[in-house]
Fold:
Amino acid sequence: MSQKRFSASPVFIFCTVGATLLTLPMPLWASEVPHELGTVLPLWSIIPFVGILLSIALFPLLAPHFWHNHFGKVSTFWGLVVAIPFLLVFRGAALHEILHIYIADYIPFIILLWSLYTVAGGILLKGKLRGTPLVNTGMLAVGTAIASWVGTTGAAMLLIRPFLRANAYRKKKTYMVVFFIFLVCNIGGSLTPLGDPPLFLGFLHGVPFFWTFKILPHMLLVACLLLILYFILDYINFKKETLPEREKGEEKLKIVGSLNFLFLAGVVAAVLFSGLVHIGHVKILGVERDIQSLIRDGVMVIMGLLSLKFTPWQIREENEFTWFPIQEVAILFAGIFMTMIPALAILRAGEEGAARVLIASVREPYHFFWITGGLSSFLDNAPTYLTFLNTALGRFFAGVPEKTAVAHLISQKGIYLEAISAGAVFMGANTYIGNAPNFMVRSIAEEAGVEMPSFFGYIIKYSLVILIPMFVIVTLIFFR
Structure:
């Protein structure tokens, strides 16, 4: 697999879209964006989004060789299917939407993932850690506990390789990685705005930093049930395996590359800084960005570069570090972000858009839990969270300034915000694309030789069987 093949695809996406943009008259670059764009988009405009999801689901199963060699071209194809007609029909408004989702969402998203992936890849746990049921359950519990403080991506990238190495001798490992995705990549990020992007977005819109501890009971219930179930499954499978004998002179456990913990702290501090400090705004190609967010992105890039500079490459080699997982995520999500533009615009239009029937039917707390979670399983959970937060604010406190309305929602209708928050974070575990670390963990596991289920296999064999019953229990206990 050549480095050139993977890097060419995103370049091709941006060059092709850029060439299309240059065919537009220059005044349109500054066109005012109509707020009603989501109200005029038909429901069938989400077909390319469905197309790229089906491609991710079916090609690895039906044509694995083709997918492995050409997934970048497939992502490019679906992105252009949206971008070209979108630009030709809506022109300046479409251009603004495309620039906005890449400048304000995609680029910060990739910077965060790249920095955490790079820094965590420089931390190596040496020594022989044996994956017994107790050890594995303990590692999952630790990952779940720290995910709210270093982010689900940070916790996942920090622990997935030690977790896989500890279980290298085990024959059945698929379910282990799936539970890792459930717990470390999703459920564990429920308690602070540092844990998962939707909660951070809520923090920026006036939700107090520690308010999300309100969903601690929900998180503990699901996490404990999953850990207990995992231990039982792992114990049953462990009894069927032969534990290798310890070798003489076996190296004791130790952490190498610990300087990267400082860089990891720098990434976390940068994220927190962007939410606590308000400096001002600048416009980049007509897209408004907070200066503090630009500083955050710059600091995260610096932390990643410092990690590359001061971590001997031998440590990364021993850690089986490669660039492929982050490249795969960058390429596929470049297409996903483009194709989700119509879906997000329709959702933002609320009852004035093509999804009016769906939006109008969302009234009870459990409605908000399931609709926010269901859409977060396939769409970016941050804007989905914001959409239904605004739906709740408009329904109960119409005309009230946002900060005041959020305060009223918390004090008077807090259960609705709990439902939105829990749905956005928990149900990101339902699919590989529900949260970015899901996809990265799957890619790392496959590189390590673990046979992972297909897109639909993951949903049918694991999400529907394990997660959905647990979310029903959460609904009955907390959101009736």
